[in-house]
Amino acid sequence: MPTSLSTSYTTEALARALTPVKTVIDSFVNDMKWQPSAAGVTISSQQEQFVSLLLSISRGTDATDNPTNDVDAVDW
User: Fold this and answer.
1) The domain containing residue 65 runs over which residues?
2) Which segments of the chain does DSSP mark as H helices, in order?
């Protein structure tokens, strides 16, 4: 069940605000459910989207600014 936080803010906003990870992941999963193309989305591509979101936040850019998945951009 989504919390009021996850229904009020985007997943990106929740992650940037350092919201507890469970709330961020719940918001992301909820977003995936409501995407029109959700039926054809694989778990692997969902994980890729989530990592891409986190990488864009770590770079200080919007998730839409840099759609490439440059994993080397962050020193893990």
Assistant:
1) 4-73
2) 4-8, 11-16, 21-34, 43-59
pLDDT digits (tens, 9 = 90+) for 26-62: 999 888 887 766 566 788 888 888 998 988 888 887 6
How far is Cα 3 from Cα 21, in angstroms, rounded to an integer?
Answer: 13
Contact (Cβ atoms closer than 8 angstroms) between residue 46 and residue 31: no
Distance CA 55, CA 57 (A): 5
Q: What is the spatial distance between Cα 73 and Cα 21, in angstroms, rounded to a whole number?
A: 22
Tell me the C-alpha distance between 19 and 41, whole Å: 26
> How many separate domains does the chain show?
1
